[in-house]
Every structure is written in C-alpha cells, then in structure tokens.
Specification:
This protein has helices at residues 2-10, 130-135, and strands at residues 11-12, 15-16, 20-21, 27-29, 35-41, 46-51, 62-67, 73-76, 84-85, 98-104, 108-113, 116-122, 143-146, 155-160. It is mostly beta strands and 165 residues long. The longest helix has 9 residues, at 2-10.
Length: 165
Amino acid sequence: MLALFGILLLLTNGVFSDWTPVVKDQEIPLDLTQNWLKVRTDSLHGRIRWMTGREDTKNVGKMMVWLSSRGMRYIIEGCTFPPQRFRVQPDIPVDKVLIWEFVKTRTSMVVYCNGVQVLNYRFADSKRPYCRHIWDGAENSGQIVFSPMDSASKYYDYQSVAYVD
C-alpha cells in the first residue's frame, strides 16, 4: 500500500512528473555504476531494449525485456541466450502501467518490476566468458541508448545509488 502511495505522488495530471519521454537512438548520459535506470511502459506486448552505448561501438552491453501475456522474458546480451523467463512473473496492474528498474552492480544485474524483484543475475554465473567482460563495470560507457527496436518503453528516469559490491 505504501509503494502505491509513493507511485501516486509521482503523478501530475496523469503523467509521471520526473519522467522523460524515450527517444530512440539518442545518447543519454547515464553512468550505470552510479545510477539505476527506470523505464515506464503501459504496453503488455513488445520489447524494452536499451544499450550501454551506441550499437556501432565495441563492448556494448544490451538488455532486452520481452513483454507478453505468455510470460515475460529477458536477454542480457553476452550472458544469456535464448530469452529466459523471469523466475518471478510480474503482476499486471489494472492500469497496465509497468515500472521496470534496472540496477547494474559490478557483479550482477538486478531487475524490479513495480517494486518486486524479478531477477538477480550474477555475471559470474554465465557460461559465456564474454559476459563479465561486457558487464563487470570496466566497460561502462557512461551513457545509455534506447534501441530503435524498442517497442514498449514510453518514459525513463534514473535514481542515484551507492553500490556496496
């Protein structure tokens, strides 16, 4: 109930007050080692897709979430393939608004949907050796880009955090 009250405080005339509309293929200065990315969608079908740099640069980390009524899936490029089901499937609220939060630490990618943790993926658990090279923090570009193939992200925001690991 308290989480719902907090979300309602963000609303102003039906629009999230601090949220920025997603513009695809535009560089956004955002260091994922110091901030977590929040993405808002009202789509139950489609794809959220963001990268830690431009597609034409080396060692770009890509995170994808497929939204579907048959179950939500993800790919952490370089770490997981084929798409994996989230162990916890998010509940779909009546207003269909989903707030996805992506927290990248030096050792893992943690994903929340509407305040519920749906993924805690440790890069060291990947069978792909390139995974840690892309995602361990050493290759962070200090920016993110929403892919032109993103069909679900409507708004984004970020929150500064101090990581322990």
